[in-house]
């Protein structure tokens, strides 16, 4: 095997400065989704809704507590094929649980090889995300992840449909 231009037997046969084979749009879209840090010029995904735009306390989402809402949301998303990782709700032994303050309630992903991951913060009517939650959501969005705040199961499932077709 004869060495090429740079003298290394395993180096590329392309001369320096030669154009590379262009990627098709589908490949490029998936690549950007997997490696958002390589494309800082692309804006981070916008939030699906504004955190302060929630439901008034007088409205109802059909659940007495946020924990009940979270359980129903997890079941509904899993029924649509998503894997859902819930944030810790407490400790089994009653001791302290160390968790990053503000971390979203649900991490949602598909096991289809697309590295699709998004986060959902669930809120009861009349409640809004805390400052710690908003700061954590901003960090995740700056890293290229989608973070949504949902006050109803219907709203969350509408966002799920958008994410599935993205």
TrEMBL record:
Q: Name one GO molecular function term.
A: nuclease activity
Q: Where is the VRR-NUC domain?
A: 64-154
- List the InterPro entries: tRNA_endonuc-like_dom_sf, VRR_NUC
Database matches in Gene3D superfamilies: 3.40.1350.10
The UniProt keyword set, sorted, is: Hydrolase, Nuclease
- The record's region (Disordered) falls at 39-60
Instruction: Give start-end positions of Low complexity composition bias.
Output: 40-54
Cofactor dependence is on: Mg(2+)
Please report the name of this protein according to its UniProt entry.
VRR-NUC domain-containing protein
């Amino acid at each position: 095997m004869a060495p090429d231009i740079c003298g290394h037997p395993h180096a590329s046969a392309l001369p320096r400065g030669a154009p590379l084979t262009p990627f098709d749009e589908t490949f490029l879209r998936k690549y950007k989704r997997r490696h958002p840090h390589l494309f800082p010029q692309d804006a981070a995904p916008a939030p699906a809704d504004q955190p302060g735009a929630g439901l008034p306390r007088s409205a109802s989402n059909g659940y007495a507590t946020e924990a009940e809402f979270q359980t129903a949301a997890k079941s509904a998303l899993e029924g649509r094929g998503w894997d859902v990782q819930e944030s810790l709700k407490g400790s089994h032994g009653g001791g302290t649980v160390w968790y990053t303050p503000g971390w979203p309630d649900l991490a949602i992903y598909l096991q289809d090889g697309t590295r699709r991951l998004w986060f959902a913060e669930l809120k009861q009517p009349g409640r809004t995300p805390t400052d710690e939650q908003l700061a954590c959501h901003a960090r995740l969005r700056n890293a290229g992840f989608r973070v949504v705040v949902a006050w109803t199961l219907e709203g969350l499932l509408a966002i799920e449909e958008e994410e599935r077709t993205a």
